[in-house]
Amino acid sequence: MQINDRRIHFLYEAWRSGSMRQASEILEMAPSSISRQIAQLEREIGSTLIEHGRREIVLTEAGHAVLEYYRNRHSSLEMLNAQLRDLSAARTGHVKFAIGEGFLGEALYRTLDEFMDGYPGFTLSLSVTDTTEMVRLLLEDEVHFGLGFHPLSHPQVVSRFRAAVPLKAIMHAAHPLADRSSISIAELCAEPLALMGQAFRIRQMIDLAAADSGQLVSPVLVSNSIPVLIRSACARRAVTVLPEFSVRSELSNGQLVAVRIVSSAMQSVYVHLITRRNRILSPQVMALTEQMRKRLAPTALYAPTDGKEPAAS
């Protein structure tokens, strides 16, 4: 079977944008021309690729298989280019990745500095986003990998490694609860709280733990900025809830303390490094993920390498 990659590209853009009309704006072609190219591709392959008669583009199982081939082919070409660059000692390229807001901090910054020092010919693109957007970026190959808390389960997204990262109550060292070894969910919810927005998995885990305990979460400050939450705790205005590595410098200098929260949900929070299923990563991208594992998730467990990769959970 001979497959025309150009026609698959038309199918990909139509699916990605949601309709022939929107794809026509991207491709600068008439919608009818795109439709004809997809129809020709169906004849070449001998299978229906989209559900015809619908305004939006909905792929059939065969359509999903064709786009999976298309993405894997481009991923393989990207890896080949990286290997050829490495062999020729050019060592140039570009790494794109996404992380959750909770990972911003000195550990990440040192990791990026180390990578850029080791690979001076490489450039980086970092997207700070919530898990829903992270999964979309992965599925559309706009990033090589993502690092997030409990990413949403998706059949085309797999976890390369995971590490337990308990969420803790972060408060000023002079706070009345600061000398406690642990606090309950009820005690936490009774405090003025500064928390992330509900689109973020950290907040979703907090809300779930509170609901399981019959408590209501009513933060006095909501922000998608970790530094804003940390400042609120440093100013003694509120208690926030974060993993310890997000406030490592403030914990080290004694300004803030981290107190264990008595909740199984808070203790069973996992960080996952996720990629699109079957995405081939270049040696340079793998080097960056390994540096992140060492600094941000040193207790990480790798996913099985028998080809049966589990979806992120």
TrEMBL record:
GO cellular component: cytosol
Record InterPro entries: HTH-type_LysR_regulators (IPR050950), LysR_HTH_N (IPR000847), LysR_subst-bd (IPR005119), WH-like_DNA-bd_sf (IPR036388), WH_DNA-bd_sf (IPR036390)
HTH lysR-type domain boundaries: 16-60
Keywords, sorted A to Z: DNA-binding, Transcription, Transcription regulation
PROSITE patterns for the chain: HTH_LYSR
Signal peptide: none
Domain of life: Bacteria
A single MF term (Gene Ontology): DNA-binding transcription factor activity
UniProt key word Lipid metabolism: no
SUPFAM superfamilies recorded: Periplasmic binding protein-like II, Winged helix' DNA-binding domain
UniProt xrefs under Pfam families: HTH_1, LysR_substrate
Keyword check for Membrane: no
Family of this protein: Belongs to the LysR transcriptional regulatory family.
Protein name, as recorded: DNA-binding transcriptional LysR family regulator
